[in-house]
Give the backbone structure.
Amino acid sequence: MVDSVFLALSVLTIGSAIVALEIRSLIYGSIALMLTLSGVAGFFLLLDAPFVAMFQLSVYVGSIAVLILFTVMLVRRELIFNKVEDKRRRYAGIVLMVVLMLGIGTIIIGSGLKTMDTNSSAVDYKKIGEDFLTYYSPALIVMALILASSIIGAMTLARREDVIDGQRAD
Amino acid sequence: MIEFTSTPIMLTLILGAVGVLIPVINVARKEKGSSVYGVIALGALLAAIGFVVYQILTKHVTPSAIFSSNVLVDDTFGSFFAIAMLIVGIMTTVGSFNYMRGRANPAVYYSLILLSSIGMILIAYSTDLVMLFIAWELMSIPTYVLAGYLKKDPSSNEAAIKYFLFGALSSGIIIYGISIAYGLTGSTNIEQVIVGFSKLGPDMMPLAILAVGMFIAGFGFKIGLVPFHMWLPDAYEGSPPTIAALLAAGTKKAGFAAVLRVIIMGAIALNLHWAFALAVIAIVTMTVGNLAAIKQRNLTRMLAYSSIGQAGYILIGLSVAPISPIGIQASLFHILNHSVMKAAAFIAVAGIVTTLGVTHIEKIKGLGKRMPITALGLTISLLALAGVPPLNGFWSKLMLFGSAIDAGHTLSWAPYLAVAGVLNSALSLAYYGWIIRKMYFEEGESNKRLKEPKSVIAVMIFSIIFIVGIGVYPDPVIEFAKSAVPIMSGLPSIH
């Protein structure tokens, strides 16, 4: 049962990730991205981490992907993208990916992971909260600074000086 | 829990508060002018470096610890990097005063430099993989924005997008490594991880090695180790030269702090034979960097390749660290020296860009007469990069190569590292000398002396004093680097 669910989720996640990268239409691409992110949430459910799965759904699928979709719909700039593609680079990328996947896959499958005990209980989210406020508290503070710097940086990059100057001239 | 008054927390508070406050002041303030934000940022950085020095002098800092049960440790190793990173931050901030004049969004520019500096400093203090990763992101995200700061310049856009994509890839690889380490050991604390690794059975060992390999690749992207270096020249060339200084002298060195905290300690504790792999990467990195630098005609690109080469020299000391006691000390000494030398060279280029608007090597002919102080600063930093005595770069390279020869008692191939290093230094002198020849021995378009940017002059004078001063009297800094070397005893090991 778990194996078939795992396989189905894998196909969904990886397939929609490839679609998200390859498809030309930004709207379909972002919908495919939502599917990928939901698939990852499914993996977390399989791994007995419902708390993380809910977060994955509410944060990534619920807000980030929807935000991307809104941005794409509000800013229709698909026409400005030129299709520049180098066939050889594309194949080189695929070959590199296959080599890396085979390498990492061989190591993981060849190791003793299969013999590990998998009957551990689900992660207690109270413990996660407690850890955040005790052991990881400096990391939490720094995380706030990361968010601040991301917002400051993103606003600066998105800001159009020419428009503001034009309005001032009026 | 780590104390509130410990160095890393106080540095985060000082720099973080000011870094977030500067854009707020910008919104509230009506009149234009960029210098005031630079001065505020400089004040915060000076206060921070003053605090670190005070903590060291009053012995509030513990001796260099490899591990701690907290996410951060207030030790001499972290303080050593904090001082190096803050010096780079100060040089970048001061060097930007003239460069930023008349450019858009100065407040955000200085604020992001401060926030990125916090990340660099915290990496060195981290003793937990999650903390290290978060500090890594705090260091990286502001620099992605800073690299693309010249929004209308296509090469700056290209630099930012390349740097961002490779940065995101490296973060992904690091977090993959962390997740494997956590899966194997059930902890993210570096001590627990390494102790856990040492207890693994032989069937699980390949996974642990995979995790360490992912750390090498992930950190290697930021450091610019070959073969993870391809983004680096484009990113340094396209970003504003002042930001190239921050990238080459700051983020790169913070990457070495992460390597030291995670990989080297792990390798020593696990008694792994990484030395040979790291040595091969060291030789390839320095050779590729220096060979590619010779072909360049653009000053920033040349310096970018030269910084790849320098990463190779630093790696010499790290690769012999398990055998030679002076390996890590030499690397730390070279990290501090290279931070100042490289930052000085890039700030000099920023001065040239501000005044003349050129970076091509043919266009700087006769610079010795037109911008004498900038040219002198650039010359001295280039000579120090090449390792010419009696400048500081000579001593740190001497120690690096010495550590390789010292390790020759145990590892028969280690002295070849020193040979490769000396040959590469000679090679690098070729292109450094070429820049110097263009500036002093070839006639330019005019010999009229130009007005040099004051802030660049200040940085040049500081770096000349630093480079020559440490070159003449290196002992205190060597002693400081020695005290920053983590104490190896008490490490778990499997034999």
User: Anything to note?
Assistant: The helical segments of chain A are 2-22, 26-46, 50-74, 87-110, 125-133, 137-158, 161-169. Residues 6 and 83 of chain A are 36 Å apart (CA to CA). The two ends of chain A are 68 Å apart (CA to CA). The mean pLDDT of chain A is 84.
